[in-house]
Amino acid sequence: MSKFARDFDRRRAAGRLPALVLAAAALAAPAVLALPRPLEREAPVVESVVVRADGRAGEQNMEELISIKKGDRYALMAVDRSIKQIYGTGLFADVRVLRSGDDRVALTFVLTRRLTVRRVDFRGGDDLPQTKMRNGVEALRPGTFFSDDKVDRAVAELRDVLAGEGYFGAPVKASIERDLEASGADVVFEIGSWKRYRITGIAFEGAVLVSERELRERLRDKAGDVYVPSRFHTDLQKLKARYAVLGYQRAEVELARETFDEAAGQVDLAVSVQPGEKITFLIRGADVPATILTPIWEEHIFEEWGLAEGEARILTALRRRGYVFAALSSRIERLENEVRIIYDVAPGDRYRVDRVEFEGLSAFPPARILDEVGISGKMPFFALVDGERLFEIPREIEFLYLKNGYADCRVELVLKSREKAATAIFVLTEGARRTVGRIELAGVALFAPENVRAAMAGAEGGGFYPPDVGKDVERIEAFYLNRGVRGTSVTSEVREISPGSFAVLITVVEGRAVRVAEVVVTGNRVTRKKTILRELRLRPGDPVSRERVLESKRTLESLGIFSEVKVDEVSVSPETANLVVTVREGERNYASLGVGLETSNEPRSLAIWENDIKLRGTAEFIRANIFGIASQISLVSQFSLVEKRAVASWEQPYFLGIPMQTILNGWLEGEDRKSFGYDRRGFSLNVVKPLSPGFVILGTLSLSRTKLTYLEIAESEVDRQLFPFSTALASASFIRDRRDDTFNPSRGTFMSFVGEWAFPVLGTESDYLKAFFKYQYYYPLMARLNFSATARVGLGRGRIPVPERFFAGGSNSFRGERIDELGPKDPQTNMPIGGKAMVLLNLEMRFPLFPTLSDLSGAVFYDIGQVFSKRKDFRFFNFQGAVGFGLRYRTPLGPFRFDLGWNVDDPKKKGRPFAFITIGNVF
Q1: Model confidence over 343-367: pLDDT tens digits?
Q2: Of 69, 395, 454, 817, whose CA is between 20 and 30 Å from 472?
Q3: What is the predicted pLDDT for the residue at 10?
Q4: CB of 536 within 8 A of CB of 557?
Q5: Which of 584, 582, 580 lies closest to 564, judged by CA?
Q6: Of 528, 544, 580, nearest to 66 (Cα)?
Q7: Is beta strand 266-274 parallel, antiparallel or unpaired with respect to 198-206?
């Protein structure tokens, strides 16, 4: 048989083999099916669940995170879900699960806790730059999570910092002290011996253009100095700035080489200088500093853009100064290795824009437009709007129209001059309005459609603005999230149903409702779990509202005892989720010292040494989170020339289970005033309750004992010198604050009302009523021109002791009198005796002094008011007035104020100024 035939038979036989196997299987199948089937084995049952964290038994709340429980059927999916829930807390770096047993399964969750870096220290020498090392090591910062892989990175960062400060080749070793109880880690870097190099010479390479002697003089590092690379790099940047002053905006000044001599401990430095082409700015026809142009040309840019940007900056500077008709042209001239940027400016005359008119306006009343762009009514002697702001308004008006459906509105600014004033005319081409003709909502089943519609801002018949449709989609999504529904999809479709009328179709594909299964609290070492749960706005069984989750986070943060708060949802099933609250407790101890200067009277001179100035100090200690209930105790002492005070306070966020901040104070104080001095001791209970954002009520009960140390006025019924008297007092305060900034307000209102009742109880002598009302108003008239007014009214009746009477005069009340000296005087000593009625009004206008100093401003003011011995003595014609001016400098604690005031109604004091220096607003 031929080879071909044998191969053919072999292949044919191989092809028959699968067929024979299939035939045999078919014949055997009935027999196999007829065999008895084994019983299905039941899934194993979980007999126990144990949690061990860092080798010790875990907290009870960790077991709450584990969804698989004792008695459940064992399933890998349930174990995996529990592992994810534990990782979701962010507190553990590793989770392992050990299983033992077959039918009865014992599970052990072995957790490795994530440690937080508590402290970072550096050891190795007193001359090491501690602050720079601390700032340079970013991998391990206090408050961040610790991990071993961060240690090597931190060591490398520290070596770089040391080398940059001239400590070359220093070996660095990190040692870690772990505190598993507190979940903290202390990191100590041990720094070994290092090498320092001294500079033998500094050479300059390239087109230096200026003398090397000048460049060396500008360097702090000289030959023979220790080489500090970071300092030398700073010096090179200064050299680059010097070249920029010479017109070489793009100069490159870099370290070219470092040549180290290890044996001699020396280094030679070479600096490369590439000045590039010189750029000269010529601004012809106007006094505008070229410095506003230099930042544009520091890098290589498109020259056309650079010219246009320069024109815009020059026009802005001119318009800000009132040159509203300024015009200019620009060009570039090239010379050998020099580029000239030339601006020819025709500034025109300066004008004050004191009128605003509209042409073509029909959709809105003029007052609406003026209010939207922030232009107030006409003010004599002042411009309605500065020139810079004026040219921004047309785009703002167009945007206002666009939001209300006028997509084609165009606004042109036309200026008409008349002597030194100008009228701004805004010429509007409004165009046709596009409206929302119909809104359709589809797919809503879980909630009433009208409730979903109420969450939308768009309305049928309103202006059509496409971005508003997207915002309504977001509002509907938020509506579902805030009601515990997850996975909702909201889409929108817009079509034009008639010219200028659009139909908006919003389709909702609803997700699933999710409720809170359990609330798990982790990370708290001192704080009680009950304290944290009390602040949560969600309980097991509640819908997982996103709004309430965020509110819970805010209320926990407001306790002031946590450095970090996280509130996460961890899914347990499609319908339930655990709420995992993870907190990181902050420092519990706080101490501070403050030192200042003060005078007992208004300054006699701006020369500090010519005034009676003494030290004023404050010391404070706070221990937070006492007993783990978010309470704190504080000790504060103040001492100064005219007052002494020591206060011990206990503060907690709840009062008898009601969420109200409660403060129990005990104090000792003494104060010297113009006509009397006193020592006082007592205690008070204060309860603070915010009713809404910016609206707070305060209730106080106090009992005090006062002793007058001296009295320069006639004794009254309770004002007996050196004879103590007691006061039992109840007061209620209502505060409404709508200012844009508590310390430096420019817009908004503040209102407060305080009512006090001192009643004769427990043997106390005082029996009087007092009421005090204050209202403040801040309003920006134009850019950096701000008007403010403060009105105060105080009324009292009964036997009011001297320390509790109304006084006025000084920097914070009436600036035409010394401190406390407005109002009635003792006929024998001419000392102020205070009164039972007071009315004060402070009016002030602040204005800019220098465009480049935005924090400095000037002020003119007018104060009027009076203090009356009795309420029946009130007379309008007895009011006194004061005028003056001052300086204001904005600080984080309020404006630093210098005021000069003149009393215009007291003939004895006309022409005599009163000077005041203080920090803070006129209260």
Answers
A1: 999 999 999 888 899 999 999 999 8
A2: 395
A3: 45
A4: no
A5: 584
A6: 580
A7: parallel
Query: Is position 126 within any domain?
Result: yes
Concatenated DSSP letters of 173-184: EEEEEEETTTTE
Contacts of 559 by beta carbon, 8 Å cutoff, 6+ apart? 531, 535, 630, 653
pLDDT tens profile 395-434: 999 999 999 999 999 999 999 998 888 999 999 999 999 9
Domain boundary among 488, 512, 536: 512
Q: Give the CATH number, domain containing residue 474.
A: 3.10.20.310
Beta bridge partners of 206: 273
Please report where in the chains the tokens 């807390």 appear, as a residue: 89
Nearest 5°: phi and psi at 684? Answer: -145, 155
879 neighbors 782 (Cβ within 8 angstroms): no
Tens of pLDDT along 556-591? 999 999 988 999 888 878 899 889 898 888 888 989
Q: How far apart are CA 546 and CA 561, in angstroms?
A: 23
Residue at token pair 């809105």: 364
pLDDT above 70: residue 610: no
Asked if residue 677 and residue 774 are part of one domain, the reply reads yes
- What is the spatial distance between Cα 476 and Cα 490, in angstroms, rounded to a whole number? 7
645 falls within a domain: no
First-to-last CA distance in the chain? 122
Position 17 scores a pLDDT of 41
Structural domain that includes position 264 = 198-274
In sequence order, the β-bridge partners of residue 178 are 185
CA 536 to chain centre: 24
Residue type, 83: I
pTM of the model: 0.76
Alpha-carbon distance of 679 to 707, in angstroms, equals 5
The CA-based angle 759-765-768, given to 5 degrees, is 45
As given in the structure block, the two tokens for residue 567 are: 């509130």
